[in-house]
Amino acid sequence: MSAIKEKQAPKPLPFQWQFLAGAVAGVSEILTMYPLDVVKTRFQLQVGTGGADGYSSIGDCFKKIIKNEGFGTLYRGIIPPIMVEAPKRATKFAANEQYTILYRNILGQDVNKQALSILTGVSAGITESFLVVPFELVKIRLQDKANAGKYTGSVDALTKIVRQEGPLALYNGLEATVWRHAMWNGGYFGCIQGVRNAIPEADTSNGNLARNFIAGAIGGTFATMLNTPFDVVKTRIQNQAKGTVHKYNWTLPGVAIVYREEGFRALYKGFVPKVLRLGPGGGILLVVFDTVSNLIRKHVLLENV
Questions:
Q1: Beta carbons within 10 angstroms of residue 209's beta carbon
Q2: Does domain 13-300 have CATH number 1.50.40.10?
Q3: What is the percentage of the chain residues whose pLDDT exceeds 90?
Q4: Helix 205-238 and helix 251-262: axis angle, to 10°?
Q5: Cα angle value 199/7/98 (rounded, 5°)
């Protein structure tokens, strides 16, 4: 019965409810894990060892940020992600659901195979990219310690970027963002499907929550392994202000530059804080999304869950 039950995927929620469930999941994850994103960005912007003020480990980075800049710096730049997090994560899950329906109709598949999950994930990631680029750029500028006295906050950063660099500057790094999100979403949703196929469905709700968390955490970890080199280059592209020499312009050439000048390990700068965030964060995302979706099905749409 469990095998038959596994194949009977719940009917997708209407778009507005998918959007709401994704939004709640995204905000829950970022409020929990954001300081690790600040640490990740600091490592990605650090060329070489960073000199005397450089960071040698996650603990060292946390210690120096708190000691030299204050605890609040760990949440510096959180406003843009919070503003975009609801539509971003909502778009991730809602687009994934909608692409699943589309590709199933096109390909004639009734069962959500892993290859289909990868395809829908990549498509959802590309869609998500166009929404998040301006918010990512403002966040990166605020997280860089070199910009501590340049911007007083998110609105000030946005205003100065538009005034000094032009409105199109908000879309610097779009191509790199597409690479980053396509790789992450394809790896995340594809891996989730593989783990769910490997782990039998539980008989209890708590068991299924644990199963979803494991699937999401493994998916988040694997996706992070795939997309970190593109994230490193995206971060560097978006931190290049107008009037400076732009060393990084396109993603794949940027990856080659980092590899040639700093070695393979530099392509994974910030990987540990990133995976510490997006591994468990991926589990949190999936658990909250599925939980909110089931609550909507049961209490709003009055379905049997």
A1: 16
A2: yes
A3: 27
A4: 80
A5: 105
Question: Is residue 241 within 8 Å of residue 247, measured between CB atoms?
Answer: no
Mean pLDDT over all residues of the chain? 84
Does residue 83 surpass a pLDDT of 80? no
Helix axes 114-143, 79-107, angle to 10 degrees: 160
Nearest to 81 by CA among 36, 136, 40, 130: 136
**Residue 263 pLDDT greater than 90, yes or no:** yes
Distance CA 34, CA 39 (A): 9
Q: Please report how many Cα atoms fall inside a 13 Å half-sphere around the Cα of residue 67, on the Cβ side.
A: 7
Report the pLDDT value the prediction gives residue 7, as an integer from 0 to 100: 45
Whether 236 has a pLDDT exceeding 90, the answer reads yes
The tokens describing 149, both together, are 């006295």
**Among the listed residues 28, 19, 14, 1, the one whose alpha carbon sits nearest the alpha carbon of residue 281:** 28
Q: How many CB atoms lie within 10 A of CB 266?
A: 19
Q: How many CA atoms lie within 13 A of 83 on its CB side?
A: 14
Per the listing, tokens 């020499």 go with 245
User: Does the pLDDT value for residue 1 go beyond 60?
Assistant: no
Mean pLDDT of 272-281: 84
Query: Is 168 or 286 the better-scoring residue by pLDDT?
Result: 168
Contacts for 86-89: CB closer than 8 Å, 24+ residues apart: 86/22, 86/23, 86/26, 86/27, 87/19, 87/23, 87/131, 88/26, 88/128, 88/131, 88/132, 88/135, 89/22, 89/23, 89/25, 89/26, 89/27, 89/29, 89/285
pLDDT of residue 223: 93
